[in-house]
Amino acid sequence: MARLSPKLLHPLLVLLLMSTASGDLYTPSVNISILCSSAPDLASLPADRLTVLISAYHPSRSALLSRLALTYASLPIVSSVVVLWSNPSSPPRPPHLPQPPPPPTALVLPSTSDSPLPSPLLRSRFVVIADDDVSPSAKILSLALSLASTRPRALIGFFPRSHAFDLQSRSWIYTVHRDRYSVILTKLMVLRADYLHKYSCRPDLAGARAVVDRERNCEDVLMNFVAAMETEEGPLLVGGRVRDYGDPRNRGGGGEKQGLRWG
Q1: Number of domains composing the chain
Q2: How far apart are CA 143 and CA 139, in angstroms?
Q3: Is CB count within 10 Å lower at the N or C end of the chain?
Q4: d(CA 194, CA 127)
Q5: Distance set, CA 190 to CA 59, 129, 206, 252 (Å)
Q6: Which of 114, 133, 220, 244 is catalytic?
Q7: Taking a C-beta distance cutoff of 8 angstroms, is the pair 125, 47 a contact?
Q8: Domain span including residue 149
Q9: Does any domain span residue 39?
Q10: Is residue 131 a contact partner of residue 55, using CB atoms and an 8 Å limit?
Q11: Assigned domain for 255 exists
Q12: Helices and strands (H, E) in the chain, number of each type
């Protein structure tokens, strides 16, 4: 399997709430055992809104992170924005948002775990997991949310991967095909809020989470299995235009090219 960048991981240690009154106030508030004590009550959460979880890693992308957070926060379908900071060697910087920010916003410090723990800031039935180098249009997010309302148990994503059998090495490989896919990446994904809880808290997945933590890789594969165990179906791929600043084909122009990039 291809090695994934650390920015794709979702390690959490402590949730830092941003004050909406007097400057930026950070208060540790996450207890893992408490988070896993109860699953999100989907029936009490609005189905016509999205919580956005941005996985951030690179300090050099602070300006881009601020723009992305502000863009997400300005969308009517977004109820909250949470930044998951996964760089253990660099402290997180708060995205530059107007005070008070349009929705609740948060930052997360790193830990040794690569599991996307459920967040108390989940304000919607459906969640967007996004990297800090992708920028979907409002139209594409609205389309994904409408698909989620018709297929609420499915993973919905924009960056597919596939598997194939390599005849030369006589082994299975992780690859990309234009005409088929097996999984979708957490690079940009819409899923039910309770899938985060199942991923992070189900005892029977402890061994799989340990592999993800040890390899610092494959959290998207595990998330696809979590959904498959619930639905016995594959994920849904959304076609459309997503700006991918991390794609090498975009670096020559500073990542400003428009178009569909398959990650």
Answers
A1: 1
A2: 6
A3: N
A4: 9
A5: 25, 6, 23, 30
A6: 220
A7: yes
A8: 6-27+44-248
A9: no
A10: yes
A11: no
A12: 6, 13
Closest CA to 18 of 124, 100, 128: 100
Question: Cα separation of 22 and 149, whole Å?
Answer: 38
Q: How far apart are CA 111 and CA 231, in angstroms?
A: 31
Please name which of 257, 235, 120 lies closest in space to residue 187, comparing C-alpha atoms: 235
91, two tokens: 């402290």
The pLDDT of residue 133? 92
Q: What is the CATH number of the domain that holds 227?
A: 3.90.550.10
End-to-end CA distance of the chain: 15
Is 220 among the catalytic positions?
yes
Which neighbouring-strand residues pair with 169? none
Question: Cβ–Cβ contacts within 10 Å for residue 160, how many?
Answer: 19
Distance CA 263, CA 260 (A): 9
Give ∠ CA 88-103-63 in degrees, rounded to 5: 45
Entry pTM:
0.78
Instruction: Pick out the chain residues at pLDDT < 50.
Output: 1-30, 109-112, 252-263
The DSSP code sequence of 123-159 is -SSEEEEEETTEEE-HHHHHHHHHHHHHSTTS-EES-
Tell me if residue 61 falls in helix, strand or coil.
Answer: helix
Helix, strand or coil, per DSSP, at residue 205? helix
Assess if residue 37 is contained within a domain: no
How many Cα atoms occupy the beta-carbon half-sphere of 162 within 13 Å?
12
Amino acid, single-letter form, for residue 148: A
Q: How many CB atoms lie within 10 A of CB 229?
A: 12
